[in-house]
Amino acid sequence: MGNVLPPRGRALRRGEPLANPGSFDELHRRCKEVFPPQTEGVKLVVNKALSSHFQVSHAVHMSTLGPSSYRFNTTYVGDQQLSTTEVFPTLVGDIDNCGSLHAQVLHLLTERIRTKAIFQTQQSKFMTWQFDGEYRGDDCTATLTLGNPDVISESAPKWVATLNIGCGGAHASYYHKANEQVQVGVEFEANTRLQDTTFAFGYQLNLTQANVIFRGLVDSNWCVGGVLEKKLPPLPVTLALGAFLNHWKNRFHCGFSIIVG
């Protein structure tokens, strides 16, 4: 897999070297963050930094459609900081009240080689694992994933286009940042095993002066929804209200969240 990214802030000139596009996971993340998360019931999240290396969080979710749950998350970061978003080694663990665990370890072998391991259990039973090896070149990134091969990806400063192809189907996404206030994302997924194809369009509006973020969603399953997040400075509190309506299944649900920290 190769990723290519022109230098930020100016057009690529002939003869100029290309910059490294970064991790492949970041390409999908930009598009995913535009879409509003499904919200239902009431959710309370409390974040606490124990030191410069350790952080923990508690999340309680009271649902009307399913059983309520509690999740405990802990994060450890090391001393090797390459950028504001890359610190090594990093260990992340998340466990719920049923004993299901999701763990992730990121480690820097050399300046150009990064590794990642992901383990997941469900009710104390081992479910999945995944190992990633990533090589950072001067103008490209090569990633080898054991279990989920990523084939093609391309990127540019204010937009990101990705494509994954596997034996089970294909997944494509497109992210575009129009300006500081508007971001949009388009996602297409085809599953050959289920003979199912889905399409979704999401957008995000940032109202900085009002401390408000709104995310909206429209997909091919006749589902529309949105999540409104409001920060309450100087308090470290964020209020979130979400609602989703599925016209095809005639189903509606909404939720309210309080995030502290």
Layout of helices and strands, plus pairs?
Elements (H helix, E strand, L loop, with lengths): L23 H9 L8 E9 L4 E9 L6 E13 L5 E10 L4 E8 L4 E10 L2 E12 L4 E6 L5 E5 L2 E8 L2 E9 L4 E10 L4 E12 L4 E8 L3 E9 L5 E10 L4 E10 L1
Parallel strand pairs: 1-17
Antiparallel strand pairs: 1-2, 2-3, 3-4, 4-5, 5-6, 6-7, 7-8, 9-10, 10-11, 11-12, 12-13, 13-14, 14-15, 15-16, 16-17
Task: Report on this structure.
- This protein starts with 23 loop residues before the first helix and ends with a strand.
- Mean pLDDT is 83; it is low at 1-12 and 148-156.
- Helix content is 3%, strand content 61%.
- The chain has a single domain, classed as Beta Barrel (Porin).
- Strand 7 (125-136) and strand 8 (141-146) form a beta hairpin.
- The chain is globular and about 50 Å long.
- The chain is mainly beta.
